């Protein structure tokens, strides 16, 4: 996507909705003819008025919280297909990033105005202390594994690491030189943060010193749109251009690359299986075996709109995607790949 496309005006007004809005079942006639019947989504959550740029599965494996360019967040029930309560409204404009705390009680939200807000996942209420410090929109957020710190990456090219209890900046601003920090993520070990930039680079930083320890890893063909660490912190998965590249996190050496149909926007690793999911343009998603490197779907499942975000539920049962069609689609993993059960 071009920088002009990614930059959008601040949306000042938040929408309202009834307390319960049913999800829209996926019409069979809307499916791509190459799709197999078993890959039809379980639910489609409709209600946002603009792009759904981020979402998180809550720890109960039942609820999803989504964030949109319409400036609202919404909590959905995966079992009933209903919106839970009212949309969560707040100031600051478009929502570009969400991150769930390790204990599952708080969602951090990154806004167009450069602020970071925190919301209670049970009540849907915003915690009063709003953090500022970035001069442009917050494009990425990540909690430390112990939940004590939150890292934010911005279009201003910097990373801030804040202490949760005080909101004070403990590290930064780290001037990354990546133009925009599109994505960043803590390693499971907590001692490193990987960041991906608009300038087609990946950097790995020491969380205690703010020093660059690996990179910049260059020549990735396009802006880095998504990053993941392997569970043991030894590998980094990165989405850019039409590839998902796998790097050794200690050396920066490329180990493998998965080839997608087109530009890759988001990737996810299953917490229960050796499965990598990726989505992008033009609305194509594929699942890969991370050990054999083989695709798990004979035909990728296809949406008619560009997909921006994908994630597995914590129990590995569900896979959800969202994008430019203003909705979330929820898939049952066993329906797509029965052998994983």
From TrEMBL:
Keyword DNA repair recorded: no
Localization per Swiss-Prot or TrEMBL: Nucleus
Region (Disordered): 1-36
Signal peptide: none
Listed CDD domains: WD40
WD repeat positions: 45-86, 88-129, 131-172, 174-215, 257-298, 307-331
Keywords of the record: Nucleus, Repeat, WD repeat
Listed Pfam families: WD40
Entries under InterPro entries matching the protein: WD40/YVTN_repeat-like_dom_sf, WD40_repeat_CS, WD40_repeat_dom_sf, WD40_rpt
Protein name: WD40-repeat-containing domain protein
